[in-house]
Design goal:
Layout (H helix, E strand, L loop, with lengths): L7 H24 L2 H65 L9 H6 L3 E4 L6 E4 L8 E2 L9 E3 L11 E2 L2 E3 L8 E6 L2 E2 L3 E2 L1
């Protein structure tokens, strides 16, 4: 081998070449700024960490906004449900009104509070409330124009030519006693007794 050869010049040349190449390698390595890549890697990790933190914050904000939006939607759905319930109640009231059913209280205390009379009426078997109407004796041609009924007290002679075209008056009470003729669409078809 060259290193163990007795000629010292060869050994010296070899050592000089090793040192020279080591120096060149070290010099090239120093020029490449090896610590910059570590710093860039740290910057890269820092940037990823910041971006992740920003993303997490954005997700938290989005979830919070989603919850707030869901509450608004829930409130709107509740409002719509309440409106629909009110509309249904109004429809029922109008339907009952068209069917001449005044919404009278179903207990004695409320009936008497509204100045009604609580007792068994006509042939009924249970007590009901008979309220005074605000439009008593108002001229009418149909019960839909009254709080209760559009009625007329006709003599027996007038009943021969039925249906009879006539006008009536709004009943004074929600439940009447006696015999009257109901006026519906300006016509009387017969006598109704309660």
């Amino acid at each position: 081998m060259i290193i163990f050869d007795s000629g010292g010049n060869k050994n010296l040349i070899l050592i000089i070449l090793v040192v020279l190449f080591t120096g060149i390698i070290a010099w090239q390595w120093a020029l490449s700024d090896p610590f910059a890549s570590v710093e860039m890697e740290n910057n890269f990790l820092s940037k990823i960490s910041e971006d992740t933190g920003d993303s997490v914050d954005n997700i938290k904000n989005s979830v919070a906004q989603g919850i707030a939006d869901a509450k608004v939607v829930s409130d709107e759905v509740n409002k719509i449900a309440q409106q629909e319930q009110l509309i249904e109640e109004a429809k029922k009231y109008l339907e009952d009104k068209e069917n001449n059913i005044l919404l009278a209280p179903d207990n004695q205390e409320d009936c008497e509070f509204q100045e009604g009379e609580w007792k068994i009426w006509n042939e009924s078997t249970k007590e009901t409330c008979n309220l005074f109407t605000d439009d008593a004796d108002k001229e009418c041609s149909d019960s839909s124009e009254c709080e209760a009924y559009c009625i007329i007290d006709l003599p027996e002679i007038a009943m021969k030519d039925l249906p009879l075209e006539t006008k009536g008056t709004c009943a004074a009470r929600t439940i009447w006693e006696g015999c009257y003729s109901l006026v519906e669409e300006g016509l009387v078809y017969g006598i109704v007794c309660n």
